[in-house]
Write a structure and sequence with these properties.
43% helix, 8 helices, globular, single chain
């Protein structure tokens, strides 16, 4: 109703982060190591928390804490962004910062493998298997 008495329904898109991505990265578009090398971390790159990273959890910023905590098991950059509902480039920048600080180990896949269509299909299927904020799986094709 438009009477102003009916509370609005749930947000169909789910929770929207209150902090803009450029604030999380302090305006940077590349992590510490990326700036020197000129290369961005591919979305299929696997990252896993190091013992040092797990020990430092209580000293990390909110987003860094969530990334390291999510990486107790190997995760791709794309999976982390989807699971934590963070902008992909924010995850790239923070993951590179965390790698530089020794909190994450980064494993970039072989270039020949990442161009294999079956690998890309598995990444897409894996991302679709992540439920949305309501616990509903995404459509498949």
């Amino acid at each position: 109703m438009a009477d102003g008495l009916t509370p609005p329904g749930p947000d169909p898109a789910g929770h929207v982060p209150a902090v803009r991505p450029f604030l999380v990265t302090a305006g940077r578009v590349a992590g510490a190591g990326e700036a020197a090398s000129g290369r961005t971390i591919p979305v299929e790159t696997q990252v896993i928390a190091t013992a040092e990273g797990l020990d430092a959890l209580d000293r990390l910023s909110f987003e860094q804490h969530d990334i390291v905590a999510a990486c107790k098991q190997p995760q791709s950059i794309a999976e982390i962004a989807a699971r934590l509902r963070l902008h992909l480039n924010v995850v790239r920048v923070l993951a590179e910062d965390l790698r530089t600080a020794g909190h994450l180990a980064v494993y970039v896949p072989n270039a020949a493998v990442i161009h294999d269509a079956s690998v890309l299909r598995r990444v897409i299927d894996g991302l679709r298997a992540i439920p949305d904020s309501r616990g509903v799986l995404r459509d498949t094709d």
